[in-house]
Amino acid sequence: MQVGLIFDKYRHFGKSDSGAHRSTGMGLTFCKMAVEAHGGKIGARNDADEGCSFWFTIPHSLKSGEAEACENAPQNHNKPGPFSETDLEQIKEVVKKIKGIKIFEISRFQEILDPLKATSGIAVNEWISHLFSAIFVQNVNEYNRLINLPENEQTKNTDR
Description:
This protein is mainly α. The chain folds into 2 domains: 3-57, Heat Shock Protein 90, CATH 3.30.565.10; 66-159, no CATH class. It is 51% helix and 9% strand. It has 6 helices and 2 strands. It has helices at residues 27-37, 66-72, 85-98, 106-119, 122-136, 140-159; strands spanning 41-47, 51-57. A two-stranded antiparallel sheet has the order 1-2. The radius of gyration is 23 Å and the shape is elongated.
Protein backbone atom coordinates (compact mmCIF):
# COMPACT_ATOMS: atom_id res chain seq x y z
CA MET A 1 0.00 0.00 0.00
CA GLN A 2 1.20 3.51 -0.73
CA VAL A 3 0.92 5.14 2.68
CA GLY A 4 1.36 8.66 1.29
CA LEU A 5 -1.90 8.39 -0.66
CA ILE A 6 -4.27 7.07 2.00
CA PHE A 7 -5.30 10.56 3.15
CA ASP A 8 -6.30 11.61 -0.40
CA LYS A 9 -10.01 12.06 -1.16
CA TYR A 10 -11.90 9.10 -2.57
CA ARG A 11 -8.96 6.65 -2.28
CA HIS A 12 -9.83 3.04 -1.62
CA PHE A 13 -7.32 0.43 -0.50
CA GLY A 14 -7.78 -3.19 0.43
CA LYS A 15 -10.89 -5.29 0.03
CA SER A 16 -13.93 -3.53 -1.39
CA ASP A 17 -16.41 -6.30 -0.53
CA SER A 18 -17.04 -5.08 3.01
CA GLY A 19 -20.69 -6.04 3.00
CA ALA A 20 -23.65 -3.66 2.99
CA HIS A 21 -21.67 -0.49 3.68
CA ARG A 22 -19.84 1.11 0.79
CA SER A 23 -16.96 3.42 1.66
CA THR A 24 -16.77 6.92 0.24
CA GLY A 25 -13.02 7.08 0.80
CA MET A 26 -13.42 10.22 2.89
CA GLY A 27 -12.79 8.93 6.45
CA LEU A 28 -9.03 9.48 6.58
CA THR A 29 -9.38 12.69 4.59
CA PHE A 30 -11.68 14.05 7.30
CA CYS A 31 -9.25 12.91 9.98
CA LYS A 32 -6.44 14.77 8.22
CA MET A 33 -8.58 17.92 7.88
CA ALA A 34 -9.52 17.89 11.58
CA VAL A 35 -5.97 17.31 12.81
CA GLU A 36 -4.50 19.98 10.50
CA ALA A 37 -7.25 22.44 11.48
CA HIS A 38 -5.92 22.17 15.03
CA GLY A 39 -2.34 22.76 13.86
CA GLY A 40 -1.34 19.11 14.07
CA LYS A 41 0.13 16.46 11.85
CA ILE A 42 -1.13 13.01 10.92
CA GLY A 43 0.55 10.07 9.33
CA ALA A 44 0.70 6.32 8.89
CA ARG A 45 3.31 3.62 8.74
CA ASN A 46 2.87 0.36 6.86
CA ASP A 47 4.27 -2.61 8.77
CA ALA A 48 4.23 -5.62 6.45
CA ASP A 49 3.70 -8.08 9.30
CA GLU A 50 1.35 -6.05 11.50
CA GLY A 51 -0.65 -3.89 9.11
CA CYS A 52 -0.88 -0.12 9.11
CA SER A 53 -0.24 2.07 12.18
CA PHE A 54 -1.66 5.59 12.38
CA TRP A 55 -0.46 8.51 14.49
CA PHE A 56 -1.33 12.16 14.98
CA THR A 57 -0.17 15.11 17.05
CA ILE A 58 -2.10 18.19 18.11
CA PRO A 59 -0.30 21.05 19.83
CA HIS A 60 -1.57 21.98 23.27
CA SER A 61 -1.82 25.67 23.96
CA LEU A 62 -3.59 27.68 26.60
CA LYS A 63 -4.67 31.27 26.66
CA SER A 64 -2.56 33.66 28.68
CA GLY A 65 -2.98 32.98 32.38
CA GLU A 66 -4.65 29.58 32.00
CA ALA A 67 -1.37 27.68 32.16
CA GLU A 68 -0.61 29.32 35.49
CA ALA A 69 -4.12 28.55 36.72
CA CYS A 70 -3.66 24.86 35.87
CA GLU A 71 -0.20 24.70 37.39
CA ASN A 72 -1.26 26.48 40.56
CA ALA A 73 -4.59 24.71 41.02
CA PRO A 74 -4.60 22.42 44.02
CA GLN A 75 -4.29 18.75 43.18
CA ASN A 76 -6.43 17.69 46.12
CA HIS A 77 -10.17 18.09 46.51
CA ASN A 78 -10.11 21.25 48.60
CA LYS A 79 -13.09 23.25 47.61
CA PRO A 80 -12.95 26.90 46.69
CA GLY A 81 -14.82 29.29 48.88
CA PRO A 82 -16.28 30.31 51.20
CA PHE A 83 -19.01 31.63 48.93
CA SER A 84 -21.24 34.58 49.64
CA GLU A 85 -24.89 34.42 48.56
CA THR A 86 -23.98 36.68 45.61
CA ASP A 87 -21.16 34.31 44.62
CA LEU A 88 -23.51 31.34 44.72
CA GLU A 89 -26.09 33.11 42.57
CA GLN A 90 -23.41 34.08 39.99
CA ILE A 91 -22.07 30.56 39.81
CA LYS A 92 -25.55 29.01 39.60
CA GLU A 93 -26.35 31.19 36.58
CA VAL A 94 -23.11 30.14 34.89
CA VAL A 95 -23.69 26.46 35.72
CA LYS A 96 -27.05 26.64 33.93
CA LYS A 97 -25.18 27.76 30.79
CA ILE A 98 -22.37 25.20 31.00
CA LYS A 99 -24.40 22.10 31.94
CA GLY A 100 -25.10 21.35 28.26
CA ILE A 101 -21.47 21.68 27.21
CA LYS A 102 -19.30 18.61 26.76
CA ILE A 103 -16.15 18.64 28.92
CA PHE A 104 -13.89 18.70 25.84
CA GLU A 105 -15.48 21.87 24.38
CA ILE A 106 -12.95 24.15 26.07
CA SER A 107 -13.55 27.20 23.89
CA ARG A 108 -17.25 27.24 24.85
CA PHE A 109 -16.31 27.18 28.54
CA GLN A 110 -13.93 30.07 27.95
CA GLU A 111 -16.65 32.11 26.22
CA ILE A 112 -18.90 31.75 29.27
CA LEU A 113 -16.39 31.81 32.14
CA ASP A 114 -13.88 34.45 30.97
CA PRO A 115 -16.34 37.38 31.38
CA LEU A 116 -17.21 36.13 34.88
CA LYS A 117 -13.51 36.16 35.89
CA ALA A 118 -13.30 39.90 35.33
CA THR A 119 -16.32 40.75 37.49
CA SER A 120 -16.06 38.22 40.31
CA GLY A 121 -14.41 37.99 43.68
CA ILE A 122 -11.70 35.66 44.90
CA ALA A 123 -13.95 32.68 45.76
CA VAL A 124 -15.62 32.63 42.34
CA ASN A 125 -12.28 33.01 40.57
CA GLU A 126 -10.90 30.09 42.61
CA TRP A 127 -13.93 28.05 41.55
CA ILE A 128 -13.30 28.97 37.89
CA SER A 129 -9.62 28.00 38.21
CA HIS A 130 -10.54 24.65 39.77
CA LEU A 131 -13.14 24.10 37.05
CA PHE A 132 -10.67 24.86 34.22
CA SER A 133 -8.13 22.56 35.84
CA ALA A 134 -10.68 19.73 35.88
CA ILE A 135 -11.62 20.45 32.27
CA PHE A 136 -8.04 20.56 31.00
CA VAL A 137 -7.13 17.22 32.57
CA GLN A 138 -10.57 15.77 31.66
CA ASN A 139 -11.35 14.90 35.29
CA VAL A 140 -15.08 14.31 34.94
CA ASN A 141 -15.61 13.50 38.63
CA GLU A 142 -13.98 16.73 39.78
CA TYR A 143 -15.82 18.68 37.08
CA ASN A 144 -19.18 17.28 38.27
CA ARG A 145 -18.29 18.00 41.90
CA LEU A 146 -17.47 21.61 41.03
CA ILE A 147 -20.59 22.32 38.99
CA ASN A 148 -22.74 20.85 41.76
CA LEU A 149 -20.83 22.69 44.50
CA PRO A 150 -22.95 25.88 44.52
CA GLU A 151 -26.18 23.91 44.88
CA ASN A 152 -24.68 21.68 47.58
CA GLU A 153 -23.24 24.72 49.37
CA GLN A 154 -26.57 26.50 49.33
CA THR A 155 -28.28 23.39 50.73
CA LYS A 156 -25.76 23.31 53.60
CA ASN A 157 -26.42 26.98 54.36
CA THR A 158 -30.21 26.46 54.55
CA ASP A 159 -29.81 23.38 56.79
CA ARG A 160 -27.96 25.38 59.46
